[in-house]
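Q: What structure does this chain adopt?
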Amino acid sequence: NLYLSIKKYDIALYYYREAIKENPKDLGTLNGTLYSIIAHTYEQKNDLDNALLNDKIALAFRKKENQKMLVTSSLLNIGHIYLRIGNYDSALSYLERGLNDANLLKINFLREGGYKNLYELFLAKKDWKNALSALQTYNSAQDNVENEKNKDQVTLMENNRIVNEKEKQAEQLRAVNAIQKLEMRNRSLLGLLLITLFLLTIAIAVYIQQLLIKNKKAKKIVEEINDQLQVDIKEQVIQNEELSKREQEYRFLADHSADLI
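A:
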């Protein structure tokens, strides 16, 4: 298609033929379209015989696949080539068949092209009455095509508006979701903090309890030691008193020993 667009027709034809060779089973029903493009390429080269041949091959593929709109297009294409060749009877036959189908299918862009060719055909045959009728129908089809384009444009604009609104809604939802996730994360962090504080409080309480128990034991031990000291002191006082008493007795005996003799 690129080579066709820059008018490198022979190179374009080479690649189109290679594409057909790569698709011998006509996967995707593309070969009819490829032969139609080849026909158009030959027409650009002004090789109308090969253009006609390939348009007829395209028609056969499209009939086989029951592609009604494309069959209609091929009929009109063949009529157009016969018109350019100057075979007016064959051109009229194919154009009428194609336009009949286009009218039944209500395909305005095919009607537009078909009636334009029919108008030119009647002009070439100097059939002014039918030429005028074909021209009027062509103008009507052209208006319909323009209206469809405008309608499509309005539909496209409306679709774009809806898409933009949906994108804005999606963005708002993403923002709300992000806030909710942040709140959930903060709640999770707060929960973890509370749990940590709770565990720390328990640990401190246990530690204090252990200290209290240790202090209580220590106090008890001190009290026991004090009690034992009091007992020891009392015993020592008694012993001291006894010793003092004995010393006094010894002194008395010593002082009065002569008198006793």
